[in-house]
Amino acid sequence: MFHRPLARHRLFFALRPPLPLARQITAAASWFETDRDKLRPEHLHVTIDILDDQDRVSTALERDLKAIGDAVEAAPFAIEFDTVIGSDRSIAMRPRRKNASFAALYQRIAVAREAAGLRARAGFRSSAHMTLGYRDGAPFTQDIAPIGWTADAFVLVHSHVGRTRHDVLGRWLLSGDDDRQLALF
Predict the structure, then answer these.
(1) Other C-beta atoms lying within 10 Å of the C-beta of residue 88
(2) How far apart are CA 174 and CA 169, in angstroms?
(3) What confidence tens digit (pLDDT) does each residue in 121-168 have?
(4) Which CA distances in Å does 66 have to 16, 59, 168, 177?
(5) Which residue of 9, 14, 45, 124 could cross-link 54, Cys pair, CB 3.0 to 4.6 Å?
């Protein structure tokens, strides 16, 4: 009988907090007990868009994803989390309110991805959150003091599933103008 190899590669666009802030977040998140893994500071991220897991990553797929990153223009924006939510399998920081700039960045990436003929992960819905770790436990919601930064770049990450390894394949500065942000003031 033939067995399909396990998918070992996950590709996604993400925002990453500055490393000093990621270290502070990880240290502050040490209050939760877990019998599974906490993410390392260098792995903390906010997924913008993600593909289905891959058995292998081709040069053509990398090239297409980098072209998507090249095509996207957006302005830097503030991202802030003020709630921690524990599900029965993970703990993540989330904002109470939707972030219009984050949603606009997702939309730009999704349109470019679709134009390249690539589909998002089955069932994926973009929602600003930062997973802190994995666990088994009862669900909870807890308000926290706001934690945030100015997102001034997004990255393309190749996660080697199960190997705790993230390779950044591309990084793009957010340096465009966004008239919608001006309407917020």
Answers:
(1) 9
(2) 17
(3) 999 999 999 999 888 888 999 999 999 999 999 999 999 887 778 999
(4) 17, 11, 11, 21
(5) 9
Sole residue written with tokens 């067995």: 3
35-55 pLDDT, tens per residue?
456 788 999 999 999 999 988
Q: In what order do the strands lie in the sheet with 165-173?
A: 46-50, 9-15, 153-160, 165-173
Report how far residue 112's alpha carbon sits from residue 119's, in angstroms, rounded to the nearest whole number: 11
pLDDT of residue 185: 34
Q: Say which residue the tokens 């500065």 belong to.
A: 173
The helix (run of H) or strand (run of E) holding residue 25 is: helix 19-28
Q: What are the tokens at 48?
A: 């913008």
Amino acid at 180: R
